Amino acid sequence: MRFPSPTIDFTVLARRALSTGTKRVPLLINAKQYNELPKATTLPLDVTWHMPNSTRSAVAEYLSGPRIPGARRFDLDAVAELEIDKNPLSLTHMLPTGKRFAEECQKLGIRDETHVILYDTVGIFSSPRAAYTFKAFGHDKVSVLDGGLPAYIAEGGEVEMGEVGDQGESEYQALDEPKKEWVRSYEEIVANSEKHISDPTTEIVLDHRPLARYTGEAPEPRQGLSSGHIPNSLPAPFVAYLDPASDKKPFSSYKSVPELKQILAKAVGGEDTFEEIQEQGRPVVFSCGSGMTAAIGWLANELITEKEGKGLKTAIYDESWTGYALRKESKIVKGNSPV
């Protein structure tokens, strides 16, 4: 999938800057911090998504509850780009056009100045992808609820059940296309894979699927899709960034920023390599099964940048492994070696 260069509407950006002011919101908040936010300018969004082989229905669970009071449902699949010229493989949750994104925001009552709080019902799973989507279209007042709905409930947060109230509508205008430098197409990934990873012009591709799918030892959850990996891509399973759910803590949540930096540094080849590519501005591209959990790594880097004032230059391969492996001409590598 290749995007044309976005047409930047500076009027939109200027209006958004004036309405939001210079105060930045934190990328990651906990339940206590959420409860302290001014409700008049804050809107929680349920952005839950489950794997294709899951028996759970994100929509049904949202409609029945429990959910955060006043939460609206932002469906990453429903808003996705489906035009055949831009999504020829009919892949799910691909980045939409600015028009489609703006229409969904208008329908949900989101305004330029709205502070959106993104959560899922797993803990940390699909909410980073929603954050990536909003920020790719220039909406910077975005926070992810760490631990999601389960953490919120565990902290004693109030919930609502049953019928969803009136959503309301709003005026909203987005960029025509997502920020081009944040997205990689199939053609760009293939061209990059033909260069050796030691070449300083080669972008480092991190594959966030489980290691056994990267090596080809385990099957893909999408029936008929080969496992394996893109030539010269490196394994970086997304679970490494998270404290997993347990009997005492029934939700996943992000590890500390110092731990995230260690994990990301290890994935790219060590602390020295991390510092080197950071200074060079050498891009790191996150990939996964379908572009969902790749955003967990993307947000981890954003959290590092937020705390330290600098991080890696990153993008997401929007189609990810599904789009790559569906194409018969794609070269697929098996085993532990990236090449």
UniProtKB/TrEMBL annotation:
Q: Does the keyword Repressor apply?
A: no
Keywords, comma-separated and alphabetical: Repeat, Transferase
Which CDD domains does the annotation name? Answer: TST_Repeat_1
- Which GO-annotated molecular functions does the record name? thiosulfate-cyanide sulfurtransferase activity
Organism's domain of life?
Answer: Eukaryota
Q: Write down any Gene Ontology CC term.
A: mitochondrion
Q: Which SUPFAM superfamilies match?
A: Rhodanese/Cell cycle control phosphatase (SSF52821)
Q: Where does the Rhodanese domain start and stop, copy by copy?
A: 67-161, 204-333
Q: Which SMART domains match?
A: RHOD
Indicate yes or no for the key word Ubl conjugation: no
PANTHER family annotated for this entry? SULFURTRANSFERASE, THIOSULFATE SULFERTANSFERASE
| Name of the protein in its database record | Rhodanese domain-containing protein
Q: Which organism is it from?
A: Kwoniella newhampshirensis
